[in-house]
Amino acid sequence: MGKTKVVIVGASHGGHQSILELLSRYGDRVDITLFEAGDYVSFMSCGMELYLEDQVTDVNDVRNFRPEDFPQPNVSIKNNHVVKAINSDVKTVTVTSTSDGKTEDYPYDKLILSSGVTPHSLPVPGTDLENVYLMRGYDWATKIKAKLEDPDVKHIAVVGAGYIGIEAAEAARKAGKEVTILDVIDRPLGTYLDSELTDIIEAHLKEKGVKVITNAQIVEFSGNGAVKAIKTSTEEIKTDLVIQAAGVTANTEWLKGTVDLDGRGWIKTNEYLQTNIPDVYAVGDATLAYSIPARRKIPIALATVARREARYVVKHLFEKTPEKPFGGVVGSSALSVFDYHFATSGLNSFTAKRADVLVRSSFYQDTLRPKYVPEENGNPEVSIQLFYDPFTHLILGGAILSTYDVTAQGNVIALAIENHLTLENLAEADFFFQPGFDRQWSLLNLAAQNALGEEPFVE
């Protein structure tokens, strides 16, 4: 019996994990071919800020893997190969090599789509001007790095105040540039955190010299050949470089009419991560992922999601109907914003409303350690927000922020959500106490007790 031919589309987290799982579970019984549209395999855009701030060994190390990391004879990794179509009737994919323009059909027995997303360019005049950049991928990373080191580039404008935009703004400011960050919504990081936390971050950005413009309606990037300004509906901002970090679009245009997509182009899958085409699976950023707290499928573009989905798909690759469906994900992430660090898990007010989930929130602030430790000796303030079902008290989300790195507490919140814990469970959960690290009641205990309306703990 011949080897099973497994074709993977996309070399990012989902594609990488798929290869690891296939080799681990099936060894040389599978013949693996991975197609990557880009030249570079496979840059980690989430590591771009570290590269821009000279905190990595080398730009060529900021990647998931190198093709030579898989020397096995049953693994073939083909970069500069764009998959154009799925021919489900004969179980082949049509692939064009961008190196020589040659198009071929490759057979598959199993096909895993991990096609990812493309950064969104604003639909305004001037995006084709010189020095209007995007914030994703190896090529853009090296171009931005060169501009940060160019003394003639003095003013940088960042469009989009999500994670990527904040990272771009911080890297540019640390490089000594005058930085303006603009967003169409009313506060930076507004889709990730509620206002109690974004108020702290926005004030800190301004303290660090970043100009923050919210509710910005950008109408044009202007300049003669190269960009010189951003025009909004109310003002003109001088700039030598524009970095666009204004969202992403699923790389699924080529799938239209073949694979079922929703109205925004996200790949639809069933509870087993199978598409509407037999033996074709989809994982990662281009899909709708099942959210445990939202109890429905929503876009969750995180490396952790792609890897968990790929692990599940490969584990059940040869089962027509797996014994159990994919369990879903919480959706957790973290970010540093100059001196502050935060982690968030599950839902917040914005994502809950978008998913039509009723939540109640509570906000709690306290010191990291007992009150008898002064702030200058390492006892900063910590802010915690919890989101929960108002009727059952199930924990559906949470975020924690401080100048001290408490982001690991976000993993505790994620476990609470995944394991369907309530406020009452978290209020009494048994965590360690040592005054060099924590409180007699953990801060998460205290945040849950506060949400339940209990008398504040005084030490």
Summarize the structure.
This protein has 459 residues and is α/β, with parallel strands linked by helices.
Account of the 3D structure:
- The chain has 459 residues and is α/β, with parallel strands linked by helices.
- The chain has three domains: 4-42 and 65-118 and 249-315, FAD/NAD(P)-binding domain, CATH 3.50.50; 132-246, FAD/NAD(P)-binding domain (3-Layer(bba) Sandwich); 332-451, Enolase-like, domain 1, CATH 3.30.390.30.
- The protein is built from ten helices and 25 strands.
- The chain has helices at 13-26, 48-52, 138-148, 163-174, 195-207, 303-315, 349-354, 409-418, 423-428, 443-451; strands spanning 4-9, 30-35, 75-78, 81-87, 92-97, 103-107, 110-113, 117-119, 132-134, 155-159, 178-182, 210-213, 218-222, 229-232, 236-238, 241-244, 248-250, 280-282, 289-291, 296-298, 332-337, 340-346, 360-367, 381-388, 395-402.
- The strands form seven sheets. Strands 3-2-1-7-18 form a five-stranded parallel sheet, covered by helices on one side.
- Helix 2 links the parallel strand 2 and strand 3.
List keywords for this structure.
alpha/beta; 10 helices; Enolase-like, domain 1; single chain; FAD/NAD(P)-binding domain; 459 residues; 5-stranded parallel beta sheet
